[in-house]
Automatic annotation (TrEMBL):
It holds the Pfam family UDG. Residues 46-219 form the Uracil-DNA glycosylase-like domain. It comes from the Bacteria. Coiled coil: none annotated. InterPro entries: Phe_SMUG2-like (IPR032579), Uracil-DNA_glycosylase-like (IPR005122), Uracil-DNA_glycosylase-like_sf (IPR036895). This is DUF4918 family protein. It comes from Paraflavisolibacter caeni.
Amino acid sequence: MQTWADFLLHYYTSLQPPDSLPNDVQWLFPQKEKTVQEIIGQFFRKFYNDSGQRILWLGINPGRFGAGVTGVNFTAPRQLSQYCGIEHPFKSQSEISAEFIYSVIEQYGGAELFYHHYFIGSVCPLGFVQHGKNINYYDDKQLLQKVEPFIVDSLQRLVSFNINRQRCICVGGEKNFRYLNDLNEKYNWFDEIIPLPHPRFVMQYKRKSVREYVDMYLKAIS
C-alpha cells in the first residue's frame, strides 16, 4: 500500500500551477528545487512513512520565510532542525507563525506524535510573492479567479488519500475559513471545518495571550 511519504512527495513535486499570474504576482514553488525535494523527502519519510489516517489542517498558502524556504508547511529552517531533527543547508531563520505552531506541537507531545495524527497543508499548496512581499490567494480577486481551478484540483488530490473526512482544521478563521467553507459546501470534502485564529495574528496582536491561544488549538484538536 502506498505510504503518505510516497503520496506527499509525488503530490508536491508534480503540482502544475498556471504559468502566468496577474498583477505582477509570482509563484513561490520551492519544491521545484532539488535541495528542497531532498529535505521534504527526509521529512516525509521520517514522519509519514505509513498509510495511517490523518486529520488535515489547512493554512492559507505558504509564505516566503517558512514553507517557501523549507517546503514544509508552518516550518521555517530553525523549526526544521530544532523540533524535527532534520539538518539542512538553509539559513537558520525562524518565522513567527512557525514558532506558534511548534508551541502547539510541543504541547501536544512533540513532532513525532503530532504528525502521526495530523498533516498540515494549505488551501493553496503554493505561495505567492508580489513586489517582494507575501500575498494571500484571497487578497486579489483576479489572482483568485486565475488560481481557483488549481486550488480545487490540489485539494481534491490531497483529500483523495487517507484523510479523515469527519473534520478539518482551518488555520485562519476569517477569510480563509469563509473561502474553504464555500468550497466545502460545493465539493463535500469534510463533515465539519473547525476555524482557528491564524498564528500570525496571534503573534502580532495577541502575544501576551499566546498561551491561551495554544490552549485553544489544543482543545480544538483534542
